[in-house]
Amino acid sequence: MLDALITSKTRIKLLLKFFLNSSKQDYLRNLESELGDNTNSIRLELNKLEAAGLLKSFSQGNKKIFQSNTEHPLFGDINSILMKITGLDQLISRVLNNVGELNEVYLTGDLAQGNDSELIDLILVGDINREYFSELVIKAEKYIQKKIRFVVFQPQEFRDKRAKILQGNDLLLWEK
């Protein structure tokens, strides 16, 4: 749906990456391997987004680090549009806030890579009522018209296996 409004697939991936998780910071070479696009197209889009004020950058050693500019007047609107298009806004308001002692939620899969998908893949960290959560997921799937797939880890288990569980493109979607 977003590709009808924005023709650059690289720009869509960058917007999803930086605007779904505003604390996310990254640099060009890492984005190249993560997004699977060539350096020139990523650099071009980063420069355009920075010139528009949507991204800000700073130097860290010899790397130029990019992050969303949360103070930009359109930040909230862009974030809201992306959340609605992906169905994450309804997932958060209808499901995640009502399931128990949830500590973190990570978005994985195609959406985390910046690709639109009919499947929302989640990693949940916390002590939740899985049966109740499954019921809420079924209701949310009907409402957002997307399938939701999830895995739940206890906090200690997640800390112990974090490096094996998380991939480079997984996004922290929600945190307590």
Strand content: 25-35%
- Reading off the top of the CATH hierarchy, the class of the largest domain is best stated as Alpha Beta
Secondary-structure-based class equals alpha+beta
Q: Span between N and C termini?
A: 31 Å
Q: How confident overall, as mean pLDDT? A: 84
Whole-angstrom Rg: 17 Å
Shape: globular
Number of H/I helices: 9
Biggest sheet overview: 4 strands, mixed
User: Would you list the SSEs in sequence order as H and E?
Assistant: HHEHHEEHHEHEHEHE
Number of strands: 7
Instruction: Provide the number of structural domains.
Output: 2
User: Which homologous superfamily in CATH is the superfamily of the largest domain?
Assistant: Beta Polymerase, domain 2
Please tell me the CATH architecture of the largest domain by its name: 2-Layer Sandwich
Query: Which regions are unreliable across 5 or more consecutive residues at pLDDT < 50?
Result: none
Can you tag this structure with a few keywords?
single chain, 176 residues, alpha+beta, Arc Repressor Mutant, subunit A, Beta Polymerase, domain 2, 2 domains, 4-stranded mixed β-sheet, 3-stranded antiparallel β-sheet, 9 helices
Report on this model:
The protein has 176 residues and is of the alpha+beta class. The chain folds into 2 domains: 2-68, Orthogonal Bundle (Arc Repressor Mutant, subunit A), CATH 1.10.10.10; 87-175, Beta Polymerase, domain 2 (2-Layer Sandwich), CATH 3.30.460. It contains 9 helices and 7 strands; from the N terminus they run H-H-E-H-H-E-E-H-H-E-H-E-H-E-H-E. It has helices at residues 2-5, 9-20, 28-35, 39-51, 75-86, 88-94, 109-112, 130-144, 155-165, and strands at residues 25-27, 55-60, 63-68, 100-108, 119-128, 147-153, 171-175. The strands form 2 sheets. Strands 6-5-4-7 form a 4-stranded mixed sheet. A hairpin with a 2-residue loop joins strand 2 (55-60) and strand 3. It is globular, with a radius of gyration of 17 Å. The mean pLDDT is 84.
